[in-house]
Amino acid sequence: MATTSTRRDTLPDTLPDRADDAPAPDRASVFRRMFPSIVLPMFIAVMDQTIVATALPAIATDLDDVERVAWIVVAYLVATTIAAPVYGRLGDVYGRRRMMFVALAVMILGSLACALAPTLLALIFARVTQGLGGGGLMTLSQALISESVPPRDRARYQGYLASVVVFSNTFGPVAGGWLTSGLGWRSIFWINLPLGLLAAVLVRRLPARGPKPDADWRFDTPGLVWFVLFVGPALVAMEQIRRLRLADAPVILALIAVAVVSLVLLVRRELKVAQPLFPFALLREKTIWRSDAMAACHGAALVSLIAYLPIYLRTARGLSPAETGYLLLPIAFGIGIGSLATGRLVAQTGRTAIFPSLALIPVVAILLYVAFNHQTLDLAWFGLIIGVLTFFMGSVMGVVQVIVQNAAGPGMLGAAAGSVQFSRAVGASFGTALVGAILFAVFKSHTGGAADVFADLVERGPSSLAGLAPAARATAEFALSSGFRAVFLTITGFAALALVFAWSIPSRKL
């Protein structure tokens, strides 16, 4: 009925912005007042994605369950992906500051449950709760920036936030290793309690404003059910695909079938209901759906690179975990500097999509160069190349939020932020699953007993091949080289797709 016209009213070609009508606030005062209140919740949520990585062996040993330990990571990822659009929509209706308190409370309760979990199954369910809070913190932080600063300044602050995201991802495994070694694995969850309470104190400093719910507004519960039945099975299927076990095929096919049917029913409902949980009507706008697609492809490329570079450096180059950590530092610095530089350029010029449209060209070129030369690159030169690569990749992270939220309008900032967060999460999940499947498929095609050989490489590095016969050793080395060439080429493909979508975005200036 009036649904289409109402939704189109939020998506005119030139959108007024509350921040444009008000006098421009002093940027320094905005930064001092707001940014710490937004950064700490985002830092907690992102850090909890990776802080468990170095603690997984200790958790598996203590809780005596090695088979299901990967679900500690998957459970958090599934929950954050589900929570992102939900909090985005609720923030539009009830106000983002209020929903930030809710997300922090859920995160703290989930962390407490994780710290006290007596079994691995209990820990997995607690991680789901923790993720339901973490997904809200990520989405609300993104939307709060756009709610509070003028459009041209949004890219600057989104650049700061992107730097925090990359630092958190990098810092998480380091902090997890320190805490697990010194205080035990449960300390990685206990640390969230004081951090969460401090974040709540800082959030109180945010302005208490936001839309009020309409008298006839109702939460879209059936939409949430279909959304959960789509996201959960889809992400679990991706995790199972990465293992490449024929015995898992029936389960994978069943999960994919449930996900596809649920997605069809979700889209059908959300396009008809007057107050949808996930406003698919936004995706009718070319600027929004193409930006979300770019975010998904960029997330697939960046997260796959971050996930598989440590494995490459260990198995192919023989670096220790500490040496690997040092060589990965250029990623954090590159993304951070690239995001900040792009934010300043957007603030000065008002241009948006042109920056990823240009920056992703050298990204594709560098990845191709690495794919065909990774065996012969000096480690110092390799680290420098990765730093330059991630500098250009940093041009995407903050800009895509600015483009989408500007196109969606003030009344849909949370929904827009949720759509970007959701797209990145799905892209990252699909990307890492596909890259892992390709790596092991190529390695297995060249060697027998691939799982055992690769496990030895991860544990001891290239020295594990010393005991093999010369022919077997040469075969394993060739398989490793071919596998990682395929990895870098696949990541190149993701970056190339992101480049195509970047050039297709119609909106290029604020």
Count of the separate structural domains? 2
Low-confidence stretches: 1-24
How would you sum up the major sheet? none
Rg over alpha carbons: 23 Å
Protein model, in words:
This protein has 510 residues and is mostly helical. The protein has 2 domains: 25-220 and 273-278, MFS general substrate transporter like domains (Growth Hormone, Chain: A, Up-down Bundle); 282-510, Growth Hormone, Chain: A, CATH 1.20.1250.20. The chain has 19 helices and no strands. It has helices at residues 3-9, 18-21, 27-50, 56-63, 71-94, 96-116, 120-148, 151-183, 187-190, 192-203, 221-241, 249-272, 286-315, 321-349, 354-373, 379-408, 413-446, 450-460, 470-504. Helix 13 (286-315) runs parallel beside helix 17 (413-446). The radius of gyration is 23 Å and the shape is globular.
Q: Topology of this protein?
A:
Layout: H1 3-9, H2 18-21, H3 27-50, H4 56-63, H5 71-94, H6 96-116, H7 120-148, H8 151-183, H9 187-190, H10 192-203, H11 221-241, H12 249-272, H13 286-315, H14 321-349, H15 354-373, H16 379-408, H17 413-446, H18 450-460, H19 470-504
Helix pairs in contact: 3-7, 3-8, 3-10, 5-6, 5-7, 5-11, 5-17, 6-7, 6-10, 7-17, 8-14, 8-16, 11-12, 11-17, 13-14, 13-16, 13-17, 13-19, 14-16, 15-16, 15-19, 16-17, 17-19
Short description:
The chain is mainly alpha-helical and 510 residues long.
Notable traits:
19 helices; Growth Hormone, Chain: A; 510 residues; 2 domains; mainly alpha; globular
